[in-house]
Amino acid sequence: MQKKEAIVTSGKTEKSPHDQEIKFFAKVLLPLVDQYFTNHCLYFLSSPTKPLGSSGYASNKEKEMVASLFCKLAALVRHRISLFGSNAATMVSCLHILAQTLDTRTVMKSGSEMVKAGLHAFFENAAEDLEKTSENLKLGKFTHSRTQIKGFSAALEKTLLQLTQDT
C-alpha cells in the first residue's frame, strides 16, 4: 500500500516487468540479431560445394536454427505486432535479413519435421494474410488514395507471384 501511495504522490508510474522485457527485446535483442545476421549472411548461405565467403559455412543444424528463429519471429509479429509499437520497423528489418539469410532449400531437404512445419505454416499464414488484404482492397476498406492503392496492389501482386514461385 505504501508503494502505491509513493507512486501516486511522486507522479511516476513504474513499468511492469513485462513492458520492460518487450522494450529490451525490441531495443536491444532485435537490433543485435539484425546486425549479427547482416554481418554473417554469407556464412549461412554457403555450403561445402558452394562457398560464398572466406569464413566457412553453416551446418545444417545452424541453418535450421535460422529458419526456426525466422518462423517464430514472423508468428510473433503476425499475432502481436501491437507489442512493438514504434519499434515495428526494427522487427521488420530483422525479419528481412533473416529471410535473406534463410537457406530454405537445405532446411527443406534435411531439416527436422518441426522446422519444415514452421516454414509451411509461415507460407500458409502469408497466403491467408495476402488474400485478406486483397479482399479488403477490393472492398475499399483502406483509406488511402487511388495512387497509393495502385502501388500497393502492384506490390501485392509481385509478392503473391514471388510466394507462388518459391513454394
UniProtKB/TrEMBL annotation:
It comes from the Eukaryota. Keywords: Receptor. InterPro entries: Ryanodine_IP3_receptor. One of its GO terms (biological process) is striated muscle contraction. GO terms for cellular component: calcium channel complex; sarcolemma; sarcoplasmic reticulum membrane; smooth endoplasmic reticulum; Z disc. The keyword Transcription does not apply. The keyword Amino-acid biosynthesis does not apply. One of its GO terms (molecular function) is ryanodine-sensitive calcium-release channel activity. This is Ryanodine receptor 3. It comes from Crotalus adamanteus.
